[in-house]
Amino acid sequence: MSEPRWLSDEEQKVWRDFSAATRMLQAHLEGQLQHEAGMPHTYYEVLVALSEAPGRQLRMSELADARKASRSRLSHAVARLEANGWVRRESCPSDKRGSWAVLTADGFAALERAAPGHVEAVRESLFDPLTPEQVKALGDISAAVLGRLSPKCAAAEAELALQEDSGVVSGDLADLRDTAELAKAD
Tell me: the pLDDT tens digits for 67-104? Predict the structure, then answer.
């Protein structure tokens, strides 16, 4: 086995600062949405994805792919959104196993109420402290990291989907899914 590529002191500091900043940012945005809109960030993301889709609807599998969420976790979130009257499921006429998630008028209204506060929280906590050059650099850095991780995450998600379809999800794959869920970008 080869020697680990240890982080330099500078890399270690950057890693720790980045890790703390992303955790704090996610916690801040989660708290803001919970406090002001009464919804977790996950539900907000589902509502946004549906609001941006043609006809304000997506197949459940497409919604899971768009949110980088496991199908079972997305199904749970959609069930809660259904209970709130914000989303409804419709059967897919061309595929007996498939279904659509459809944003309701109440769901769109909830999103319209939540969006201004959420956008302001994102602006205040992420963009206001940065110069225009830092915003561009953050975009470039984020794209580079996503470019590196996306193929690996796609392969892991495909393997997990096969496991879920067969009814067997190993602990390692479940941990990987949970880690991917926590790391997904807004």
Answer: 877 788 889 999 999 999 999 999 887 777 789 999 99
pLDDT of 166 reads 67
Report yes or no: 114 and 37 within 8 Å, Cβ to Cβ: yes
φ and ψ of 37, to 5 deg: -115, -10
Tell me the residue ranges of DSSP E strands in the chain.
57-59, 87-91, 99-103
Which tokens hold the place of 91?
Answer: 């059967």
Cβ neighbours of residue 161 closer than 8 Å, sequence gap 6 or more: 70, 71
Distances from the Cα of 129 to the Cαs of 43, 124, 126, 182, in angstroms?
Answer: 27, 7, 6, 24
Backbone angles phi, psi at 93, to 5 degrees: -65, -25
